[in-house]
Amino acid sequence: MKIALVHDYIKEFGGAERVLRVLADMYPEAPIYTAFRVNGSNCDQKFSDRKIIESKYGWLIKHGNLYSPLRFLAPLVWRSIDLSEYDLVITSCSSYFARGFKVSPKTKVVAYCHTPPRFLYGYEMSINLMKYWIVRVYAVIVNHYLRIFDLWSSERINKWLVNSINVQQRVWKYYRKESTVVYPPVEVEKLIDTSKDITKEDYFLIVSRLVGAKGIVEAAKAARHLGFPLKIVGEAVGYSQVENQLKQIKGVELLGSVDDERLGKLYAGAKGFLALAREEDFGITPVEAMASGTPVIAFNGGGFKETVVDKVTGIFVEDTDVKTLEEAMKQFNKVKWNREKLIERARLFSKEKFMGKIRSEIKKVNES
To answer: Which of 4, 76, 202, 293 fits a 20 to 30 Å CA distance from 220?
Structure first.
């Protein structure tokens, strides 16, 4: 079979890109088609061993953050990509659609959906640009057109795979499409091995892009008030001011982007992990923390409800304000956490389970 992979864009390396990395390893001969590629970015470096083909409009939208205000070009971008020569296309799709490309009648298209575009359907975004009236006017005009494209392109999918029950519900709500849950791949066994001989320290850990919608500043204030150091792995994104705010708070250590080896050690050494996004699609980082023997304080919403077990592998909070997080940290310290139960839970989301399920679903598509 001739196979191609498709992904929104190659710029930042996050959860969706970790899925793409595993898919690329599963299908090493498959080129990766994308809207644009930022040469030299951390994501680009992760795929330096793969053939990446960006759209002919990549040169226009890749500079700075133009891809966001020029999002109205997305239908043009994807329609310019012709994948008719392929027997199977696996698209890793979320905020930048990654659908609507040209295919032939013989081509089967499988969508691994991280989420329908959040900005189209009223979900909280990492950066709240809607507070500006000019952005709201722009959105009213452009988003109607993009929703039409989103729905049209959803009809061209032969099989929907989704990263959580949370996203499965969204796919049904907005596209009226049945889908199969295939939880994202987590390097569980590698993290278990890394954590075996590492002694716990007295710090909390956050792994997140530095954006305003993930409760990061509030967590930093709560940790400072209670006297706990807070380490944060992640880089600033777009126009967010979170990084500047965090630099003003004592006890916060901004580590930026780190390699997987150091990240594993940071997970293992932390007393606890904070996962505070309100509507996370799935959320790989809490699972990585649990695989490292580290319990989680998580917001009671989104995909976190599918991974964290309250009072067993972590504690749920109903809000992310400073007072709520302080109370959660105090409660957290009173619990005697069981490393084996944390690891047992994390193994449900292993890379091996992901690969097995993907192969099974692809086989079904090919036989249909």
So the answer is: 293
pTM score of the predicted model = 0.90
CA distance 251 to 117: 36
Q: What is the pLDDT of residue 137?
A: 75
Q: What pLDDT, on a 0 to 100 scale, did the predictor assign at position 12?
A: 86
User: β-strands 180-181, 88-93: how paired?
Assistant: unpaired
Tokens linked to 191: 């993290």
* 230-233 β-sheet, strand order: 252-256, 230-233, 204-207, 272-275, 296-299, 314-317
Q: What are phi and psi of 144, to 5 degrees?
A: -60, -45
For the stretch 30-78, pLDDT in tens is 999 999 999 999 899 999 999 999 999 999 999 878 898 899 999 999 9
Q: What DSSP string describes 47-74? A: TTTS-EEE-TTHHHH-STTTTTTTGGGH
What's at 134, amino acid-wise? Answer: I
Question: Can you give the pLDDT at residue 213?
Answer: 62
Q: Are 6 and 24 in contact (CB under 8 A)?
A: no
Distance separating alpha carbons of residues 185 and 163, to the nearest angstrom: 10
Residues of the chain with confidence (pLDDT) below 50: 126-127
In DSSP notation, 191-258 reads: HHHHHTTPPP-S-EEEES-B-GGGSHHHHHHHHHHHT--EEEE--B-TT--HHHHHHTSTTEEEEES-
Q: What is the pLDDT of residue 125?
A: 52
